[in-house]
Specification:
single chain; 195 residues; alpha+beta; Glutaredoxin; Glutathione S-transferase Yfyf (Class Pi), Chain A, domain 2; 2 domains; four-stranded mixed β-sheet; 8 helices; 58% helix
């Protein structure tokens, strides 16, 4: 298997985090706008959105990081994504929530922080509200989807890791920070996210 995408992308990191957790054999190649290779005809044939990551697994070509997570965990028969549909129904909303509710705020603050620009109060408040929602969930459950770690946790881990480091005033978030510490202690996280 090959992962196409730069190692500093949060969306690439979630795929690499899962591959490491699964003990999968894979390689990663640098792809992204800064490499000038995601708008090529060959890459767009793999990923019509021209973004990263993409996965090449034999003849199969996949794009969109959450789709890749589902595929990899299901292919491995991993308990991180159980066969039981009711169990999956507790996992997938958190993956969708990341894209629908947290991602815009995350990307905006990430870009402002990277440029050294101040973060508007409204963006800081939106981030605090989103992370407070996660904190509430994790106060009631050790992992996002229940008593065991799943791909929901892997999906959110790289993004929340960055969010907790943004120059934004945040509430205490004790349950979220404890969850983050559990993930940060994992060798796979240390190899691909914390590095």
């Amino acid at each position: 298997m090959k992962v196409l995408g730069r190692k500093t992308s949060g969306n690439v990191q979630k795929v690499l985090f899962l591959l490491e957790e699964l003990g999968s054999d894979y390689t990663r190649e640098d792809y992204g706008r800064q490499f000038g290779n995601t708008a090529t005809e060959d890459y767009l044939a793999i990923n019509p959105a021209g973004k990263v990551p993409s996965l090449v697994d034999g003849e199969l070509r996949l794009w969109e990081s959450n789709t890749i997570l589902r595929y990899l965990a299901a292919k491995a028969g991993s308990p991180l994504y159980p066969d039981d549909l009711a169990a999956r129904a507790h996992i997938e909303p958190w993956m969708d929530w990341l894209l629908a509710s947290l991602n815009d705020t995350y990307v905006t603050i990430f870009k402002l922080s990277k440029a050294g620009d101040p973060v508007p109060e409204a963006n800081g408040k939106a981030l605090a509200e989103a992370l407070t929602l996660l904190d509430g969930r994790l106060a009631a459950s050790p992992w996002l989807a229940g008593p065991e770690m799943t791909i929901a946790d892997i999906c959110l881990a790289p993004i929340v890791h960055r969010c907790l480091g943004f120059p934004v005033e945040l509430p205490a978030l004790p349950a979220l920070r404890a969850w983050h510490e559990k993930l940060a202690a994992r060798p796979a996280f240390q190899k691909v996210v914390a590095a």
